[in-house]
Amino acid sequence: MLKNRQILGCSSGFVSHRWKPYSTTSGSLSFLSISTCSNPSLSYSFSSSSSTLLPTTTTTWLSSTHRPRFGAFSMSSAPSGSNPDGPSSSVAVQSAGNAHEINFCQSCGGPTKHEIPDGEEKIRAICTVCERIAYENPKMVVGCLIEHDNKVLLCKRKIQPSYGLWTLPAGYMEIGESAAEGAIRETWEEACAEVEVVSPFSQLDIPLIGQTYVIFLARLKTPHFSPGPESSECQLFALDEIPFDSLSFSSMVVTLKLYIEDVKAGKLNFHYGSINKRPGTSPSDIHAYTLEYHLQS
Amino acid sequence: MLKNRQILGCSSGFVSHRWKPYSTTSGSLSFLSISTCSNPSLSYSFSSSSSTLLPTTTTTWLSSTHRPRFGAFSMSSAPSGSNPDGPSSSVAVQSAGNAHEINFCQSCGGPTKHEIPDGEEKIRAICTVCERIAYENPKMVVGCLIEHDNKVLLCKRKIQPSYGLWTLPAGYMEIGESAAEGAIRETWEEACAEVEVVSPFSQLDIPLIGQTYVIFLARLKTPHFSPGPESSECQLFALDEIPFDSLSFSSMVVTLKLYIEDVKAGKLNFHYGSINKRPGTSPSDIHAYTLEYHLQS
Q1: CATH of the domain at A121
Q2: Which residues form the Nudix hydrolase domain (chains A, B) (predicted)?
Q3: B262 close contact with A: CB closer than 8 A
């Protein structure tokens, strides 16, 4: 069964196409710019706005100073490289790709300019010495939804962002591993739990921050778990006891809601969707989102 | 139905766990290193080897000079930043993350050192001036498998790598867009086709080169398509006419084989899997792979 654009956890819609791939009237490419804001939040704030090329419309996220600039956003109140809506990989947290922070070439150390390369449509950081282009792409966060005795395993975060809030064990996928291997690794690191992945459950993109969550259904190989270095507690929760008011990220809210819906319906599906914050809401409000392109398989 | 570790398109197995998330004997983390080779191929070659931390075993990919070093590989015969087993994003091609090429900090321009940061287990490039850590993560390639009149749409590549070979329209996902939006955009760019995504069809990881392919089933909104700047031809193929000997990438072989199997079985599923080259085979042999962790939903 396929369901398009199901809205979860929200009462008002966001723009249904924040990023338009083409213009049907002109036949040429056009883009809808994405703007962020200068709004501090509990764990992070956006400090600049951005636009892609050939803007036709500007969508205001919150009140903001609009400066067409490369990169989706920067974060000012969290440590450099931190991550507004995602877990960490191991202990350190990573940036989703703040391309406007690319001032120098990683290869030769030359200063960069920010221009549209020949044959492309998007501003990139280009080395003024060796002409290397610095591409920034979304990062994948991989994790496990562990089913055990009709309960699911959650970890209480002992690190920022979202210190003290509950999450599925998850973290950034590394080069050299598959998503399944990364999810198994992160589960071991955060919950000291040895698991086997059973099936893919969800892929949830968060375009604003350049993250994609890939969550697998998994089961414990042995009935043992305990907090790893990044967790203060690990606990199995019955589905009607999941602490939705104390979850860490919108992606966890969506994943767990979809899971509960599937369990109630008696059939576990694979879910794809794109999570977008509702305009006018605080970035720290993990329940203020729309789920777009919701497709099931 | 779930199928674990189905092997497709190969007769011999590769290591089933190239990357071990933990050691059950010691209880501490251990890793299986990944080695690449100095073997030129048609469109690219690997020029160095790599290992992750705490190596317990070394898997030789082909004959190679083993130098423990951060990063999966480098490519020597293709232009800097090119991509051995993936399509391009727009015209320029991107690197999957050659971390050993990170010599300077993108933020302050300071020289980097390659060490294990405190609290982590993997060597990273760390700025010796501002101490910023340069994380490198897998890149997502998004595309569409377009069904039309019991045929699928393929594009003949007019760019390297895999010039002159056939591919599904696909390219690197950008920050600020969802995977579905990226797949729609790439289809427009490569095939001038206006499509609607119908359902997620596959996620195929290629750990060696740090890429993940996400392919959606899609349909033409209008029955029009024509080659974009990166394609020399676009053509609908009946399933028994797909040019498997002239496809561009292993990911396309796997996706199309799974699709044909599903069509024959009368049910389209979502497929997850990890594509690994068989040891002792040429990197340019797109049929020399194993599909691991094959899970369906």
Answers
A1: 2.20.70.10
A2: 137-260
A3: no
Same domain, A160 and A106: no
Q: Which residue range forms the structural domain that includes residue A119?
A: 99-135
In a domain, A49, yes or no: no
Please check whether residues A128 and A172 belong to one and the same domain: no
A237 CA: distance to closest CA in chain B (Å): 24
Which of B72, B91, B179 is facing A203, going by the closest CB pair?
A: B179
Q: Please indicate, yes or no, whether residues A152 and A234 belong to a single structural domain of this protein.
A: yes
The domain tally of chain B equals 1
pLDDT digits (tens, 9 = 90+) for B228-280: 999 999 999 999 999 999 999 999 999 999 999 999 999 999 999 999 999 99
Instruction: Establish if B106 touches chain A: CB-CB under 8 angstroms.
Output: yes
At residue A283 the predicted structure's pLDDT band, cuts being 50, 70 and 90, is: confident
For residue range A105-138, list pLDDT tens digits in order: 999 999 999 999 988 888 999 999 999 999 999 9
The answer to whether A208 faces chain B, any CB pair under 8 Å, is yes
CATH of the domain at B153: 3.90.79.10
Does A148 lie in the same domain as A114?
no
Nearest to A295 among B90, B107, B197 (CB): B197
Contacts 24+ apart (CB under 8 A), A59-63: A59/A15, A59/A18, A59/A32, A59/A33, A59/A34, A59/A35, A59/A279, A60/A35, A60/A279, A61/A34, A61/A35, A61/A36, A61/A37, A61/A208, A61/A277, A61/A279, A62/A37, A62/A279, A62/A280, A63/A37, A63/A38, A63/A39
CB contact under 8 A, A102 and B103: no
CA distance B233 to B246: 13
**What number is the ipTM of this complex?**
0.72
